[in-house]
Amino acid sequence: MDFDLTEEQRLLQSNLRRLLADHYAFNRRANYQTEAPGWSRAMWGRYAELGLLGLPFAEEDGGFGGGPVETMLVAEALGEVLALEPWLSTVVLGGGLLRHGADAALRQRMVPAIAAGEALLAFAQAEPQSRYSLSDITTTARRDGDGWVLEGRKSVVLHGDTADWLLVTARSAGARHDRGGIGVFLLRGDAPGVLRQGYAMVDGQRGAEITLSAARAEAVLGNAEDGLALVERVVDEAIAALAAEAVGTMSALHAMTLDYLKTRKQFGAPIGSFQVLQHRASDMMVALEQARSMAMYATMMLEEPAAARRAALSAVKVQIGRSARLIGQQAVQMHGGIGIATEYAAGHAFKRLAAIDTTFGDADHHLRALAAEVSAAA
Amino acid sequence: MDFDLTEEQRLLQSNLRRLLADHYAFNRRANYQTEAPGWSRAMWGRYAELGLLGLPFAEEDGGFGGGPVETMLVAEALGEVLALEPWLSTVVLGGGLLRHGADAALRQRMVPAIAAGEALLAFAQAEPQSRYSLSDITTTARRDGDGWVLEGRKSVVLHGDTADWLLVTARSAGARHDRGGIGVFLLRGDAPGVLRQGYAMVDGQRGAEITLSAARAEAVLGNAEDGLALVERVVDEAIAALAAEAVGTMSALHAMTLDYLKTRKQFGAPIGSFQVLQHRASDMMVALEQARSMAMYATMMLEEPAAARRAALSAVKVQIGRSARLIGQQAVQMHGGIGIATEYAAGHAFKRLAAIDTTFGDADHHLRALAAEVSAAA
Amino acid sequence: MDLRFTAEERAFRAEVRDFIEANLPAETRQRMIEGRVPTKAQTVAWQRILNARGWAVPDWPEEHGGTGWTAVQRYIFREELQQTPAPQPLGFNTNMVGPIIIAFGTEAQKRHFLPRIRNIDDWWCQGFSEPGAGSDLASLKTRAVRDGDHYVVDGQKTWTTYAQNADWIFCLVRTNPQAAKRQEGISFLLIDMRSPGITVRPVITIDGGHEVNEVFFDNVRVPVSNLVGEENRGWDCAKLLLGHERTGAARVGVSKERLRRLKFMAGEAQENGRPLIEQQRIREKIAAIEVELKALEMTVLHVLAGGRRAGESRQADPASSILKLRGSEIAQSITELMMEVAGPYGLAAPGDPDAEGSNAPELMPEWARSAAPLYFNWRKLSIFGGTNEIQRQIMAKAFMGL
Amino acid sequence: MDLRFTAEERAFRAEVRDFIEANLPAETRQRMIEGRVPTKAQTVAWQRILNARGWAVPDWPEEHGGTGWTAVQRYIFREELQQTPAPQPLGFNTNMVGPIIIAFGTEAQKRHFLPRIRNIDDWWCQGFSEPGAGSDLASLKTRAVRDGDHYVVDGQKTWTTYAQNADWIFCLVRTNPQAAKRQEGISFLLIDMRSPGITVRPVITIDGGHEVNEVFFDNVRVPVSNLVGEENRGWDCAKLLLGHERTGAARVGVSKERLRRLKFMAGEAQENGRPLIEQQRIREKIAAIEVELKALEMTVLHVLAGGRRAGESRQADPASSILKLRGSEIAQSITELMMEVAGPYGLAAPGDPDAEGSNAPELMPEWARSAAPLYFNWRKLSIFGGTNEIQRQIMAKAFMGL
Hints:
The complex is a heterotetramer, with 2 copies of chain A and 2 copies of chain C.
Chain A: H1 7-23, H2 26-34, H3 41-50, H4 68-80, H5 87-101, H6 104-115, E1 121-124, E2 140-144, E3 147-154, E4 165-171, E5 182-188, E6 194-200, E7 206-216, E8 219-221, H7 228-263, E9 265-266, E10 269-270, H8 275-301, H9 306-335, H10 345-358, H11 363-371
Parallel strand pairs in A: 1-4
Antiparallel strand pairs in A: 2-3, 3-7, 4-5, 5-8, 6-7, 9-10
Chain C: H1 7-23, H2 26-33, H3 40-53, H4 71-83, H5 91-104, H6 107-118, E1 124-127, E2 143-147, E3 150-157, E4 168-174, E5 186-192, E6 198-204, E7 210-223, E8 227-228, H7 234-243, H8 252-268, E9 270-271, E10 274-275, H9 280-304, H10 319-342, H11 366-369, H12 371-377, H13 388-400
Parallel strand pairs in C: 1-4
Antiparallel strand pairs in C: 2-3, 3-7, 4-5, 5-8, 6-7, 9-10
Helix pairs in contact in C: 1-4, 4-8, 5-6, 8-9, 8-10, 9-10, 10-12, 10-13
Pfam families (chains C, D): Acyl-CoA_dh_1, Acyl-CoA_dh_M, Acyl-CoA_dh_N
Organism (chains C, D): Falsiroseomonas oleicola
Protein name (chains C, D): Acyl-CoA dehydrogenase family protein
């Protein structure tokens, strides 16, 4: 067992942190949000330069051969500054589907463009009725010549509005809740028949409602009826990345709160001198440490067989959700009024944490999944 | 709406509190526990003198015509001193079954003896397998001439060891979980075929395991197949009394804790000067107030139709369980080591509160019952 | 001891309910059901309907338009408004500046202001909080210097709710910086929001809404006739508000209405093709909140009926703190659960459509729209009006002697 | 960064597990599964088995019998003991007085005591706490006055665990009442429990068990040769213990074993004829604790592997406090749930059958017996060894600068 980072990992972490320290102060983030896509194209270019965008891809595909630990480090650092760019959707979600699902030809066509920052990806998975179920899919894929044509509605698609490519789950066979019959299809974002309505989500990230009307896919990843295992794997990888991002956000929020406790005075003393707030800060520290431990656990369990991996990632999501809620709510409470004013960073961190809980299943959803596996001991 | 006590109720309360102040200091309670029955016969006589034992019975049956409010006041006062005597089992449980289930002749035979302190009653309801289900009954009642003969095992019977009379639920018809086919039977505690093994329970109250082997009943209350509604009503009355008792115990425990916070010094100051413990005491106060409110609500809802009454009493039990756990655990925690030493009162109050939660269904059991009734709003 | 409402009280409730049903504009009600704040016009229109009925200011003395109701009746009235839901009386007018003018104002002030307050001819806002003086009100810095028949006011107020709607602001200002105690040397002024030198800057909250503001005073001239009570005795006015309205903070009716809304949402939201309300865990969470709300309601009724043992003297009753604490916690727990029920759609919430950064509400189902904004907005409930930490401190110090 | 156990570590775990399986007396194990404390004889016998294998004191330096294992191996060893469950090494011997004698003792003390400590030829108990000096150790009052070759000790110790079993007690005593700081003027003495003037009074805890005692010292003569370290420098010894054993307080193995027991109980307990484990809510509660325990375990491993960023210097790492806090909270939550699962039978729990006031255990099912006693007894986990409040305070002051 070894928790130390390699020299390369350390370098990656410190380079990224330096980049973000230089370019992602809170007031600049607010500016990025008002740029046309709702985030910073310039930052996206810098991520590409730093090698973030090709990081998890195999070298033979045009990537840099990073693993789960590298992804964790990047996610944590981006979480510290509440970065707005479509890294999760492009590299972890879209990229993950390509890594695990695409054939070599497709990978070698896509990866260099992703790594160069020239291709943005989005994963159009959820539908208006599907909530957190990955198999509740009504979008259909119909054979048409040697290609596929998609029909349906996809909902709350992270960064779906600006993506150059959409990875869309659709049903080529089977009934609505069946585990079989689901494929993952690659479409151009601007393909005929793709209608996208983008919006800013509550946490400042971008989302889109997407309607597919006889939209033609460029490719299907693997088998059109067998895609659910791929989706589950990539969603688990996204949960691991979200966990690390949440740790970054919680850690920044905890630090912000400590600063505030030390500087803000009331009744003639820094409010951090009040024992009740001291202990509250300790409870936040405990929650942060629990979350950090589980983010590492997530990273460690991604390569395990599916059943063990899914259970582990559910446990991770439960802990992240609980820690995030405690830290988010308490940070706002201790900041008082300015905790809920948009001019300060704390409220934005609180909202991002709430959003992370809701992404790919909230704490209760995953607790129910774990509870289903509990059995009596001998 | 009127929350004021009548002059008579005030008098009852103050007389009982005075009696207990004179005779139920914590060290005397410890002595009572070592007396032969595990409680004080002398106190029982004093309760009778004060009129407690005949209180809820109708005057024409030999009682004093008190109502739910009077029962609440008595239970609360007894809870304040952790009284050990079989008041709940004799007056509320046994007495309640007689009040609502017995015919006039039986009532007029039993009530004067109860009121005089000469008849102790116990309600033998639970069975080893029944947990909190009131209809999970395997004890059988068989017609034998013009009487009934009982066969079965009753478990954790409150004060079953010293009771002169047992009120026993048994199945005269139907299958194990059926709501129909259940009767409530009156037996002498020393009838042939009644084997009783008594013990001190964790909270100092007495319990018994009772085996019935062809034990002959003296009477059946009402119809032998129709007793479940009676049982449910009386159990709800007992829950109301337990709620009030718990309020008395919590209130005493909170006061004890405040005393301790004010007198115990650490690091050169009373520990009550530490803000964290101050706020903890406030949380206990809130929990106490919630419990008190629900104990009154219980009293108010006892006369409502069965469905509304049962839902209300489940809500009461949930709140009592939660308040009791918070107050009990925090009181012990703030007392430190002496909170768990038998020589001090705090730990005993903690244990009684834990026992009350477990009596007639814990907070979670009743929460599940309430959850079953939740439905979507229009 | 009879813990039920009397027949008269039940009849009164029916009368109130019927009146609201018959007179509340449907679109006002629908807007509130959706979790949105009524517009200024809606609030004013409703208050004028109530005023015409003689129900504008139930808590005021009858000579000034009060209804003469019992405490229980006033509770029933407020609860019916909350449960409908209908706009509640504008607190700054009816619960704050009105009672202060009644208690401390001159006859001229009463004659001029009270009828206008009742009818919201003037919309009032409150200028108490300042940057750096949140829960510690006595450290306020905005100063008023006497200059002939005027005070000249300079300084800054913050968290000023609906200053953007307001015609007038009532302010605590420092008139004697040399006073021995910090609470002394503070005065209570009524200031016309149209006065030159007043600037209102919006503060947008994380739900995207515009409820609060900063108000800047730069050489603002206020006639001395707008002083309420004695100069340097403004703290007396502030204290009056602290003692006021003990049971309102529980917000029982509001939480009942929001719970109903939550149960509606849980019937609409689906997972695996079934409504969420069928899930055991959601039902248990709702049931648990219902228990807590029932306990709170009983505490409120207990306080109202005056039966609390510790409650003989108003000063020595911890009820206000308990009601504020539990009221805010329960309300917040409902919004948490709403956010959970809304699920992924919670992320796409449009916020207040009147506010900046909103999304097109038609993209998402109506039932899911208000969840996130309300969850975010109602974090304020445990902060404003004396933080929950302050409430616990009050209980410990004042009622337990710790 | 590789977060998994190495092949060597897994092989080591197998070796330990096999040894325990082969050598632990079955009745010792069964007693512990039932939630009862092993008898003195059982604890001693097991320690001697470990000692014979060379595994009595893994944490000690090899020259004194230590194993030379890595931190991870020591963790695995302890976890295997806890999970079996097997008696853990007597902490007073192996974690407390042993390391202190190793660090501060004379050669003679080491030669005489260490082998006996390792083998529990002497059972030690700890004389630190006093009435009125719980978490505030430095306020202790028991005094030792020099009289020729002896100290004369007078005073009282409390919460002395297993004093009734003990042959020796190690004590903090005040040797200089005039010292400038309270921590100065304290010395560390080894005292034979058979010394005239020592009285042990049992303190029965609310679970009915006899674990703790009061120990009275009345003119007890202690040879000066039993002073460890310098006179008046006993605080150094006490501080050594505070720094010691950072990960043990998490009790991960114990909680894993108790969770397994809980799941066994929930399979035995029935409601409406079905095992409780089939109820959704019980399963969710168990799953939630499993999540928390997994997070705690990962934190422990993180600390052990030395990878914590803040953990470069032992002094500056809040891990000890976090582990103590979470370890006790999780353990307590398991006992709460055991109490719930036991249901009505929880009330009839027999307690420690060796203790006073016990009931006949045969009247109730075996699986339900230990629930209530354990729930009551384990309230101590958040009190002893530095209350959880103290842990939060340490975190706030030492690691967050508040």
